Amino acid sequence: MSRFYLSIFSGLTMLFIILATAHGLGPFIHLTPEETNTEMMAFVFSSTLTIFGVSLQRAQLHRTEQDKQTAEKQASYDPLSGLLNRRGFMPTLARLDNQGRRYCVAMLDIDNFKSINDNHGHRVGDRVIQILAQIIHNRCRSQDITARIGGEEFALVLVDIAPDEVEPLLEAIRSTLANMSIVAEQQTLYCTISIGWADSASGHDGETLLHHADLALYQAKSAGKNRIVAFSG
Questions:
Q1: Are 149 and 86 in contact (CB under 8 A)?
Q2: Cβ atoms within 10 A of the Cβ of 61, count?
Q3: Distance CA 233, CA 228 (A)
């Protein structure tokens, strides 16, 4: 029962008892009006305190549950990018295996990120991460899973996607960043990313696909960066 309905019910109950007492009925009738009034006032006072205490307890329980949910969310999300962190990403990836859904796992890595931090400062590096996270958010679909799992590493899970739709989606992310002039701290720079991906059609679980996507990412880096490579085992 909600606090609102509890208050209504309790208020009507006390009103009924007060009216009954006023008409000489109920458990609070005594030989003298003074005794009757004293016991009635004591009942009303104790009932009010009880209702107030129950309401406070319910409010505290509700606040505790909200704080717990907030803490769990903060523990699973990266504050800089707003995406899932590794702690939140890995269990989500594992649940897909139990659902039997087809998906692709992609690993994205900002090229030359150390040089960006060294030459332009960490605040600019943070801004690049935020911009890439926003591009990922805008390009991915509602059912996709997006995460920042390392310093400059991002992971995507493209759920229920046709094989011929994977590369165009990843290319949209890559090209959007590559063609964007990033202005931060009164500096302008261009950034690129390398991407590797793997398909669940291979029959492997999510953690293995993440490893395969990482291998494909390494191939993209070795081939000159700023490109997309599909894992071919």
A1: yes
A2: 10
A3: 16
Total-model pTM: 0.71
Tokens of 16: 């009924």
Query: pLDDT for 122-156, tens place per residue?
Result: 999 999 999 999 999 999 999 999 999 999 999 99
Distance CA 64, CA 126 (A): 33
Instruction: Name the nearest CA neighbour of 218 among 206, 231, 200.
Output: 231
Q: Which residues contact 153 (CB under 8 A, 6 or more apart)?
A: 107, 108, 109
Q: Where are the domains of the chain?
A: 3-73, 86-230
**Which regions of the chain does DSSP assign to beta strands (E)?**
103-110, 145-148, 153-159, 182-184, 187-189, 193-199, 228-230
Question: CB–CB of 123/80 below 8 Å?
Answer: no
Q: Is 86-230 a CATH 3.40.190.80 domain? A: no
Residues tagged active-site: 152
